[in-house]
Amino acid sequence: MESASEMVPFPLLPTPIESNYRASTIPYRFPSDNPRKPTPTEIAWIDLFLNSVPSFKKRAESDPTVPDAAVKAEKFAQRYFEILEDFKKDPESHGGPPDCILLCRIREQILRELGFRDIFKKVKEEENAKAISLFANVVLLNDAIEDGGKRVENLVRGIFAGNIFDLGSAQLAEIFSKDGMSFLASCQNLVPRPWVIDDLDTFKLKWSKKSWKKAIIFVDNSGADIILGILPFARELLRRGTQVVLAANDLPSINDVTYPELIEIMSKLKDEHGQLMGVDTSNLLLANSGNDLPVIDLSRVSEELAYLASDADLVILEGMGRGIETNLYAQFKCDSLKIGMVKHPEVAQFLGGRLYDCVFKYNEVLS
């Protein structure tokens, strides 16, 4: 299951990486804080992860691939709960102080040690099948928009609408298990602009004047997110002559799409001529990012992705984990776009926005 490739720094980060790059967006503590006492921010995030334990336990209980799943799910919940409580007593326990990367890593480690490889597998398969059946319709609606600026805005709204399918958010997991979500309704019901970070107008202007030769897109969730959000956007880039690399996780984590799942999705969407709704896909590459969490530390990516990314001139980090909770302020040697929906109240508060607000942060590097 583990990635066979070596892990290396993402080549488009400025060098030296050590002094310039911090994966976590939110400062959880400052040098003046007592190392033995959790900060209010650390407490808030520990509580956020505590609130998600019941929904993870429920998914684990119903994993048909694990013998004694209910007993092991109970063990997971107990062990993770105890570690989170330990952090409240001593932030330096368990390799701390805690941030969203460490809290995600420990959760995944406990699940994997107990034999849970992919507790969201069933729901991902269901959502992928549903989204594949809607793909052609979504693409035709986009293609029918003649104005280039309006079309790109519609594609961006599609990315936000798709990004709602996130089972790492306790509130959304709850809504989702009750009645699912409609993609087109989600597009129409986005919070109104201006969003909490809103560089869309600048991006639209660049889009009309600029063609990127190669874009790396770090993708997020299965289902509507990858299929109805990212792929129509990637297809539009292909149409414009951009080579596109979609970078997906090595191992399962929450409902994030993995590299093998992405290969399978693409095989179902391409026609017998290798086209995606009339667009040639020979310039579309799929890569294993080497990552195994819903957040990403770009000081460690797979050698394969580093090789593919070395000559890219646009980096896109999509989703709350990769583009907001980590990497929102990351600088790159080329143009970059961070795009995602705010699905945790703690993130909304930090950004000074609303829950389900949108982040569209575009940075242009002037060569």
Automatic annotation (TrEMBL):
One GO term of the biological process aspect: coenzyme A biosynthetic process
Domain of life from the UniProt record: Eukaryota
GO cellular component: cytosol; nucleus
Source organism phylogeny: Eukaryota, Viridiplantae, Streptophyta, Embryophyta, Tracheophyta
Residue ranges of every copy of the Damage-control phosphatase ARMT1-like metal-binding domain listed in the record: 52-359
Organism per entry: Quercus lobata
Protein name: Damage-control phosphatase ARMT1-like metal-binding domain-containing protein
Cofactor: Ni(2+); Mn(2+)
Molecular function terms from GO: ATP binding; hydrolase activity; metal ion binding; pantothenate kinase activity
Keyword annotations of the record: Hydrolase, Manganese, Metal-binding, Nickel
SUPFAM superfamilies: AF1104-like
Keyword Heme: no
